[in-house]
Specification:
heterodimer, A: MetI-like fold, B: mainly alpha, 11 helices, globular
């Protein structure tokens, strides 16, 4: 009888310990990042670090402005590019697709979300980047290059096809299946009765989607899109390949640039002490940005 | 009210656009698979798996990197899967109404969304810097950290799906709770837990960023976990960034193998749910 109580207790403690390990882990990540970026914080401050576009190895002056804007712009571009297509896929899957094709297509989309990011990076580097450089960039230069003031931002100033737009496009391809499957789930949760009553009133399929399906799944879908943006923020391997990694002013959308993750991936293993603490500082910024995005998404997705 | 014809045409145009989006999206994604396959098969050969790396002039293979990645994934799974299953057990069985469990669940979601490079940096500070150099244990630890929250989440939801009457029946027969969990609940949820573990393995098997600062890479055949251990994903990263044609084509071939393994595990995981336990 007592042995049995002992085992009961032991098993409980074992599971409790395992659950507590998650607390230790997340707290450990935060504490470690704070401790390691302390020298960086003392040297560069907070606001000054965020607004400084220095990245000077010999003077050991580092600022977060360029990596931070690069990360935000690349992720934003990816979401803008991927969302319309992903929503189209989701509408097709829930409202139009013949039921026989539904599960194979959904499975294909989910499998594509499982492909590791380094594979997308490889594809971006050797397939997408040359294609964009040869066809898309000259086209954009011709169409928008003549505009006053902003025209220069569409010019190709550095050859190679590795730039902010390429990074955004690779990220867009990566988060496309993610948004599509979350939106499909959101659309599928709308009760059939609601849709049927719209049809009963004589609404067309599109009117039903716009007036019934979208309003009742909006929060979940927008939450999913924000979640996808979070993924794009922290994505490393795909971006590190195609962003170009140049610490310079962003004078065109087709110029090479940096993101937080690309800077870490490329410089961490060769960094000196000051640069190292600046990289930890950047990692901390990424951690916090990810936290904000995640809580926003969860707040929206919860009813 | 707009004319009926106008409304019907709006609907037709919108739905055609949605169908085109779907075709474009699916086409794009299949194009990627096709590109990986066509580039990869060109340089895929048995020697990629059986030979040591050679110079940039061609030949050789990535035997060490394949074995190294397998070893790292194995060690990570041996640590991460049991921890994740136990944590999920706590959440579903003991912590149902506890505030601590709610907090753990929230932190689990946070850990799941952590960019993998952040995990790599974290493990670098706790396991690489104090040990004085890159080592295999650090790489496996980084992969395990990515795995734990994934397995915890699936285990928790799979156990929650087991009906309470089943537990009550077993408890009423006089068996202690830990036995009920191990012999009844786990058995009922086995295929679901297996799915979670397989999908988590599929996820970590293709990770690169967390390995770059932990197990690093090694051009030699090295399976000593106290030293830098080669991995296929980091090798792909380095080879693809090199200017040598032979290395780039090996990177494609290795990428094809990684994609194949990851997709195989993902499909296997989805099939496992359907097995009767």
């Amino acid at each position: 009888m007592t042995l049995r109580k002992l085992f009961n207790r032991l098993f409980y403690l074992l599971t409790l310990l395992a659950a507590a390990s998650l607390v230790f882990l997340t707290a450990g990540v935060l504490v470690t990042l704070v401790v390691e970026s302390k020298p960086g914080f003392e040297r560069f401050g907070f606001i000054k670090f965020l607004l400084s576009s220095d990245w000077n190895y010999s003077k050991e002056m580092f600022g977060a402005f360029r990596p931070l804007t690069g990360t935000v712009l690349a992720a934003l571009g990816a979401v803008v590019l991927a969302t319309p297509v992903a929503l189209g896929v989701a509408v097709f899957l829930t409202e139009l697709c013949p039921s026989k094709l539904k599960s194979p297509i959904s499975l294909a989309i989910e499998l594509l979300a499982a492909i590791p990011s380094i594979i997308y990076g490889l594809w971006g580097l050797f397939v997408l980047a040359p294609f964009l450089e040869n066809y898309f960039q000259p086209l954009m230069g011709k169409v928008f290059g003549g505009l006053p003031v902003i025209g220069g931002y569409f010019a190709t100033k550095v050859a190679g096809g590795l730039n902010l737009v390429t990074a955004s496009m690779v990220l867009a391809v990566m988060i496309l299946p993610f948004i599509a499957s979350l939106a499909r789930e959101g659309f599928a949760q709308v009760p059939d009765v609601l849709k049927e009553s719209a049809y009963g009133l004589g609404a067309t399929t599109w009117e039903t989607i716009a007036a019934v399906v979208w309003p009742s799944s909006q929060r979940a879908v927008v939450g999913g899109i924000i979640m996808a943006a979070g993924r794009a923020l922290g994505e490393t391997m795909a971006v590190a390949y195609v962003i170009g990694n140049r610490h310079g002013a962003l004078d065109s959308i087709f110029s090479p640039y940096v993101t937080i993750t690309s800077v870490i991936a490329n410089e961490f293993n060769e960094a000196g002490p000051t640069q190292m603490s600046a990289l930890f500082y950047l990692t901390l910024a990424l951690f916090l940005a990810n936290l904000v995005v995640l809580s926003l998404a969860r707040r929206l997705m919860r009813k | 009210m707009r004319s009926h014809r106008g409304r019907v045409w709006t609907s037709r145009v919108a739905l055609t656009l949605a169908t085109l989006c779907a075709l474009f999206g699916l086409g794009l994604l299949f194009l990627i698979l096709y590109d990986i396959a066509s580039h990869g098969f060109k340089s895929l050969s048995l020697s990629l798996l059986t030979e040591d790396p050679a110079g940039p002039m061609g030949g050789g293979g990535l035997k060490g990197a394949f074995l190294g990645q397998g070893l790292l994934t194995l060690v990570a799974t041996l640590v991460g899967a049991p921890l994740g299953i136990l944590a999920g057990t706590y959440l579903a069985e003991y912590g149902r109404d506890k505030r601590f469990a709610k907090m753990v669940l929230n932190l689990c979601d946070l850990a799941m969304s952590l960019p993998s490079i952040v995990v790599g940096i974290f493990v670098y500070s706790i396991l690489v810097k104090p040990m004085g150099g890159f080592n295999g244990w650090a790489g496996a630890a980084a992969l395990a950290i990515i795995m734990i929250p994934l397995v915890t989440r699936t285990t928790e939801s799979m156990l929650a799906m087991v009906p309470w009457t089943l537990r009550e029946a077993a408890l009423a027969l006089g068996s202690p709770y830990y036995k009920v969990i191990i012999q009844i609940v786990y058995r009922k949820a086995a295929s679901g837990i297996l799915t979670g573990v397989l999908l988590a393995i599929a996820r970590i098997a293709g990770e690169t960023a967390p390995l770059m600062f932990t197990s690093f890479n090694n051009n030699y055949f090295e399976l000593n976990m106290n030293r830098p251990v080669p991995s296929i994903t980091v090798s792909v990263y380095q080879y693809a960034g090199s200017p040598y044609e032979a290395w780039i084509s090996q990177a494609w071939a290795a990428a094809l193998v990684v994609t194949g393994v990851v997709l195989f595990l993902s499909v296997l995981g989805r099939l496992a749910v359907k097995w009767r336990s």
